[in-house]
Write a structure and sequence with these properties.
Order of helices and strands: HEEHHHEHEEHEEHHEHEEHHHHHHH
Oligomer: single chain
Number of strands: 10
Distance between the termini: 39 Å
Shape: elongated
Strand content: 5-15%
Largest sheet: 5 strands, antiparallel
Strand order of the largest sheet: 1-2-4-5-3
Amino acid sequence: MPKSTVTLSTSLEQNKEAFNRLLPLSDSFDFITRDLALGDTPCFFMGLNGLCDLDVILRIFSEIKASDFSALAGSPCRNLPEIIQDQFLYAQVSFSSSIDKLANALLSGPCVLLLEGYGQGLIIDTREYPLRSVEEPDSEKVIRGAKDGFVETLLINCNLIRRRLRSPKLTFALQNVGDLSHTDVVLAYLKDNCDPTLLKEVKKKLSSLDTSSLTMGIQSLQELLVKKSFFHPMPCFFLTARPDVACSYLAEGYILLLCDNSPFALVLPCNLFQFTQSPDDYYKSPLVGTWLRLVRLACILISLFLMPLFLLFAGHPGWLPPALSPLVPADTTPFALFIYVLFVELGLDLFKYASAHTASGYSGAFAIVGGLLIGDTAIGLNWANEEVIFYGAATLLATLGLVSVELGDALRLYRLFLILLTGLFSGPGFLIGLFLTLASIITTPVFGKKSYFWPLFPFHWKALRTLLFRYPTFMAQPEDKNQP
């Protein structure tokens, strides 16, 4: 919708014509329009069917038609807005003379009432968005703990945070992004508890975004905030769909971005160690939580290096100690192993995505039966061997053990890159690939010019140890809340 600088006039007919030119009031079936009268004063009502509470609309119509209301409306026209605001105690009412602002409000769900002889329209907040039930997110399931998660409705997500964090410092700043979509984006933070420089930078960036729409919601917002090249597959932002995780980051001084139509909260700033934590760590004892976190760190190394190292040492079995030589096949050529590894990598990815998009009732059986059949058939056709399938399955399990899907996808791309260079150029290829992979991770851009490796660089031991180890709650409070 193009921006308009036209303001309302005191003529109701002219205002109706302006809105008919701007919006398809008569062509689109979901617009609700009514010609009403407040006593002797004509008025025009507009709303969107499905985005506003019909019970509240019916109550508005009834009160407008009521005799006592009509008697009040017999006063001069300049008093009508005050009268309406006093009568509609069950709905928030605001005024605006901008046609563009009134149209944006109408398309967001509130109703608009225009009055004859008055150059301001009334915005009556009666919005009621379609809402799915609040359920635990599939990507962040926990055995113990809360079972609720963010949904696509922005107000509900803010309520889920407010319910847990009842601090007077908690602030939700609303920003409108997109010249076409006018998507609502909320900046959530604890006043006097976050980095003021970062907060100012986020507000400035949001207000200066030049885009027509946030087509893919929070993902589009990420790509607009930080522009990165194909050389950087690592995630630049940490996302969570759990309100308890979002509240813990707010309490630590981080800033959240919530986007309408997206069931995720975006955490600022981002660092690599955020992807090694899971909410399940905090719903278990400190010792068990520490063990799970160390296992997760090992999963990162296994996911990235197991298959490339297997391919490297299988081509050079003499590089291994004699006790470890049985771990690699001795009767297969390096080139054949390279083809086997590529086949298994692509095959496991195919099974992973096929089972993810299969109906939930069949996905488990599909993955197990399909894996067994294809694995046995591949070995029988000499497209793979037992060692390659075993190491490929171990790599897949390690990848699935990671909490962040974005981190797992990035590690898979790095792993394929290392496999290609190792298979083509052997040891030198592995070293070159390792150097380029580390360079890509180190130079990953993040918002606010913060360090991707904080608290490792710059070094902050007290913060680092709370990330590596699960400390009891009374010992895990951050010393410097503005540090991230």
